[in-house]
Amino acid sequence: MDCPPAPKPFTDKCIQMHIESLQPMLVEDSSHLTVLDCTTGRLVLKVLDIQGRVAKTVVTSMEEGNQRIALNMSDLRSGVYVLNAFFRDSFIKSFRFTKQ
After folding, report:
1. Does residue 45 fall inside a structural domain?
2. DSSP secondary structure of 8-59
3. Which residue of 18, 86, 87, 94 pairs with 44 in a disulfide if CB–CB is 3.0 to 4.6 A?
4. Which residues of the chain have pLDDT under 70?
5. What local confidence, expressed as pLDDT, does residue 4 receive?
């Protein structure tokens, strides 16, 4: 499998991961991430409220290839949040979303 170009935080091509999108950005109860991963490892997703407090943490094991990760957001209160993604303890990407 050909890997995509390494995202900015990575220099070691053995730990490449690319997160395409968080859909939808206006969340009612659930959302999902579209991920392309070139290796296995642990993905940690931290959801922060607007004050920067951790509102939710999701940990999942990743396999090689395209994946869609379902996220249950029903336990969050209405408001603006930031989802930070970490793979093997390295920051990957951040998404801002609104919970209705």
Report:
1. yes
2. TT---GGG-EEEEEEE-SEESSEEEEEEEESS-EEEEEEEEETTS-EEEEEE
3. 86
4. 1-15
5. 52
How many CA within 13 A on the CB side of residue 50?
7
Model confidence, pTM: 0.78
Task: Give the distance, in angstroms, between the CA of residue 29 and the centroid of all CA atoms in the same chain.
Answer: 17
Angstrom distance (rounded) from CA 21 to CA 94? 10
Distance of CA 24 to the CA centre of its chain: 13
Is residue 2 one of the residues assigned to a domain? no
Bridging pattern class, strands 30-37 and 26-27: unpaired
Let me know if residue 35 belongs to a domain: yes
Amino acid at 93: K
